[in-house]
Amino acid sequence: MSGAVTVPAGLLDAIAAQARRDAPREVCGWLAGADGAVRDFYPVPNAARRPEREFLMEPQAQIDSLRRIREAGLTVLGTYHSHPKSPPVPSERDLGLSLYPELLHLIFSVAYEEFGLWRITESARRRVALAPEAQDALGLREEKSRTRGASGDAKGRQGKLRGRRGGFSRRADPQT
Ligand SMILES: [Zn+2]
């Protein structure tokens, strides 16, 4: 998949609303779709010990949501979570999501009112463009310049990633 990723604007609004409602706790869940286009999101409770600073998908709810996604005829295209206070840029801990380099990672910053969509690998975190219609709906285009240069220093962190736990439980494989 290359180029801008289509995410329905209504879905972004709903994720933003959930993130605002649960702040200062982070929210998390799956992005599901078909043919590379995101069509729906599936919230999963955040079971992290410090949910205001990190997220960990509650294992049983994670498994249940993956089944619902399958039953809906969709596949997991990525994850989403919120940053109550920081910009929508993958944190140190989020770099553990590089365990799933095929997935998209959508982050909504409550404080900055801004989305970031990412692919995260051990060697890089790369911002992925949201399709223009979604950007227009949220006024994101004007804010683009605020977040440039976010992918600079991921390389030096490779060594730290080893053995790091991802944001979601590894009991369930997101590809199934
Ligand atoms: Zn994060």
Automatic annotation (TrEMBL):
<keyword id="KW-0479">Metal-binding</keyword>
<keyword id="KW-0862">Zinc</keyword>
<keyword id="KW-0378">Hydrolase</keyword>
<dbReference type="GO" id="GO:0006508">
    <property type="term" value="P:proteolysis"/>
</dbReference>
<protein>
    <submittedName>
        <fullName>Prokaryotic homologs of the JAB domain</fullName>
    </submittedName>
</protein>
<dbReference type="GO" id="GO:0008270">
    <property type="term" value="F:zinc ion binding"/>
</dbReference>
<keyword id="KW-0645">Protease</keyword>
<dbReference type="InterPro" id="IPR037518">
    <property type="entry name" value="MPN"/>
</dbReference>
<feature type="compositionally biased region" description="Basic residues">
    <location>
        <begin position="157"/>
        <end position="168"/>
    </location>
</feature>
<feature type="domain" description="MPN">
    <location>
        <begin position="5"/>
        <end position="131"/>
    </location>
</feature>
<dbReference type="InterPro" id="IPR028090">
    <property type="entry name" value="JAB_dom_prok"/>
</dbReference>
<dbReference type="GO" id="GO:0008235">
    <property type="term" value="F:metalloexopeptidase activity"/>
</dbReference>
<keyword id="KW-0482">Metalloprotease</keyword>
<dbReference type="Pfam" id="PF14464">
    <property type="entry name" value="Prok-JAB"/>
</dbReference>
<feature type="region of interest" description="Disordered">
    <location>
        <begin position="135"/>
        <end position="176"/>
    </location>
</feature>
<dbReference type="InterPro" id="IPR051929">
    <property type="entry name" value="VirAsm_ModProt"/>
</dbReference>
<dbReference type="InterPro" id="IPR000555">
    <property type="entry name" value="JAMM/MPN+_dom"/>
</dbReference>
